[in-house]
Amino acid sequence: MFKSILIATDGSELAEKAVENGVALAKSLSAKITGLTVAPMFPHYMFDTGFSKSAEFDVQAQKQSRIALESVERKASAAGVPCQTIAVGSDHVHEAIIEAAEARGCDLIVMASHGRAGMSAVVLGSQTQKVLTHSKIPVLVYR
Q1: How many CB atoms neighbour CB 137 within 10 A?
Q2: What is the tens place of the pLDDT at every residue in 51-110?
Q3: Of 3, 49, 79, 100, which has the maximum CB count within 10 A?
Q4: Are 83 and 77 in contact (CB under 8 A)?
């Protein structure tokens, strides 16, 4: 059925549960996984000269990505599932997830949904909803 599964994570508690379930699914299907984190880019404004802020932001984003991907690697290794990981930076998280899945030949995307509702959903948007809307690859959502 599915042979190559992309698991998107932001390192949150809910995303960790999606990682666990995605790894278990991959194991049951004898599939390989690609763990992915997408870090937002530092907002550079026209008159912003905050190089130190930008560098600090990048360091923190890389650190969080590394922690999230190490978790994916540990869980995959413990389950005996082949795993590769990638971290990318993008202001359009949903596009980066879809592009990574397509580039890696993945046939399933697994990700969590924080289940925001009301104004928080309108203001923050939902990367999961955007992936569901734009992806031609099947998406499994963990809530």
Answers
A1: 15
A2: 566 778 888 889 999 999 999 999 999 999 999 999 999 989 999 999 999 999 999 999
A3: 100
A4: yes
Q: Taking residues 34-58, what's their average pLDDT?
A: 73
Q: Dig out the tokens for 54 from the structure.
A: 């930008």
pTM, two decimal places: 0.87
| Residue 22: HSE in the Cβ half-sphere, 13 Å Cα cutoff | 35
Class of domain 8-21+31-142: alpha beta
Identify whether the C-beta of residue 8 lies closer than 8 Å to the C-beta of residue 113.
no
pLDDT at residue 85, as a whole number: 98
Instruction: Name the phi and psi angles at 15, rounded to 5.
Output: -65, -35
- Distance between CA 114 and CA 25 in Å, rounded? 20
Q: Which residues contact 126 (CB under 8 A, 6 or more apart)?
A: 113, 114, 116
